Amino acid sequence: METAFIIEKLVLIVVVFVLTLVIAMYSTLAERKVAGFMQDRKGPDRAGPFGILQPLCDGGKFFFKEEIIPAGAHKGLFIAGPTLAIITACISSAVIPWGQPLTIGDHAVSLQVADVNVGILYIFGVVALGVYGIMLGGWASNNKFSLMGAIRAASQSISYEVAMGLSIIALLMVTQTLSLKEIVAQQSGFVNWNIWVQPLGFLIFVTCAFAECNRVPFDLPECETELVGGYHTEYSSMKLGLYMFSEYINMFVSSAVMAALYFGGYNFPFMDQLGLSPNWIAGIGVVVFFVKIIAFIFFFMWIRWTLPRFRYDQLMNLGWKILIPLAIANIVLTGVITLLKDMYG
């Protein structure tokens, strides 16, 4: 029984890992296609039909490019930076429930790698580790622009993690659990989605997600116009590819977390009235979940090609003077509403 359980989890890990890499890989193509559409041009269209082989060409280019390590760099930490960035990006999806359990014979197969009862704390812990990969790379490069980008990344991450955590506290007051599986299960009907009871919390969370993923308008750690390339200025070959890939994986995982926390995850309207078998419902739920994720990824890209970058002082003011007070007010408001419901509900 233990062997079957281990094999089941290993298969699920491999499937999730491959899907994560494929989605991140084709997000690079989608980014350029969306940019082309918004700028009235086609985007990549030479490598394969409609440019679908472009990500493979880009990956091959990264693998075969010359690898350069600056003479004054700390070699061990220079290599550890992108390694830590990609590892933390990949393992953050371990607690996300991708769908309802599948029934194979008498055995129920869970579509969640690790069902821990503190799933949200796990994600926050892993996300907090991710900034160390950027800091190591920026400091070990022995380049002032890289170091400035790394310092910006650290201060930005610390600032916006506070507001993000406070927005989640209000959600936890409603759901009464830290388990992502239970939070998704509670949103079984369209009217039960948490977006309806925590709209302000969602707005704060999605704003902080942009900052945590270093996406425009919060891409100050890279900020090509000021810092050449930011924390990865001195990187080349696949080490640069790992940094870029980790950003797209973080965007995918952030989209999955937002869909799970606020938009019902794999739940969809009228799923209990279709009269289909549980396995069919579970399969449709997985597809619906990924549609929601892709919609959020498009939202990330749409914002990138719509809004200008903030100045650094604007970034800090938004985090400390606006988002954190709003998140605290949201907690107080949620507590008052919950108390009134208990008293008069």
TrEMBL record:
The chain crosses the membrane at residues 6-29, 77-99, 119-139, 160-178, 190-211, 248-268, 280-302, 322-340. It is found in: Cell membrane; Membrane. Keywords: Cell membrane, Membrane, NAD, Quinone, Translocase, Transmembrane, Transmembrane helix, Ubiquinone. It is an enzyme of class 7 (translocase). PROSITE patterns: COMPLEX1_ND1_2. Its EC number is 7.1.1.-. Signal peptide: none annotated. It catalyses: a quinone + NADH + 5 H(+)(in) = a quinol + NAD(+) + 4 H(+)(out). The keyword NAD applies. Its main location: membrane. It is a multi-pass membrane protein. NDH-1 is composed of 14 different subunits. Subunits NuoA, H, J, K, L, M, N constitute the membrane sector of the complex. HAMAP family: NDH1_NuoH. NCBIfam families: PRK06076.1-2. Belongs to the complex I subunit 1 family. NDH-1 shuttles electrons from NADH, via FMN and iron-sulfur (Fe-S) centers, to quinones in the respiratory chain. The immediate electron acceptor for the enzyme in this species is believed to be ubiquinone. Couples the redox reaction to proton translocation (for every two electrons transferred, four hydrogen ions are translocated across the cytoplasmic membrane), and thus conserves the redox energy in a proton gradient. This subunit may bind ubiquinone. This is NADH-quinone oxidoreductase subunit H.
